[in-house]
Amino acid sequence: MAISRIKTSSVLQGFPKSRSLLAGNTAFNPSSYESIATVTVGSGGSSNVEFTSISSDYAHLQIRGIAKWSDTSDDRQLMQVQFNSDTGSNYSRHLLGGNGSSAYVDGVASTTARAGARLISSNASYANMFTAYIIDILDYTNTNKYTTVRTLGGFDTNGGSFQEIVLGSFLWQNTAAITTIKLLPGSVNFAQYSQFALYGIKGA
Predict the structure, then answer these.
(1) Are 46 and 183 a contacting pair, CB within 8 Å?
(2) What's the average model confidence in pLDDT over 154-176?
(3) What is the pLDDT of residues 118-131, one digit of tens each?
(4) Cβ neighbours of 188 (radius 10 Å)
(5) Which of 17, 70, 137, 141 is the most buried (most CB within 10 A)?
């Protein structure tokens, strides 16, 4: 006998009476990242960018963006990172970098804070080029250990003679929970249009 119609009630017979895929399951959250704050440097540049009163509601923090520094002579400079206004030599770092033809390593046991995001300068040869970077600040509220940071940054001069990528890590030798992050470009300013976005990474 041919079947001309199937009733929904017949198909669902014996199954839980729910048409939602989430029935009995935890709601799906499509993102583990929550935007906290975003800064874009305006005309004239800025000597620093600071995030303050950072909530302790997350497992980790991440900073993403593009930036350059306003020097017109030196090709590049390491971006500095300071936590809780600590300007002492309480940071150690390790860097691994390359430019397409050679590689280098760098390590400093105790220094002022310098992350491994090496900023390209505002030299006329690189006028419209920025460094892209990611800075991960891990376990930033854990007061039982020093804070570990990992960084990835790089830039390309569109076929020019200068490009670089840097993978780095550094250690803040302090057990305090982080509530303030200050970013500094070195000896001069962040150039106009540099952007910084702070995200909180949720726990499991």
Answers:
(1) no
(2) 87
(3) 788 888 778 888 99
(4) 17
(5) 137
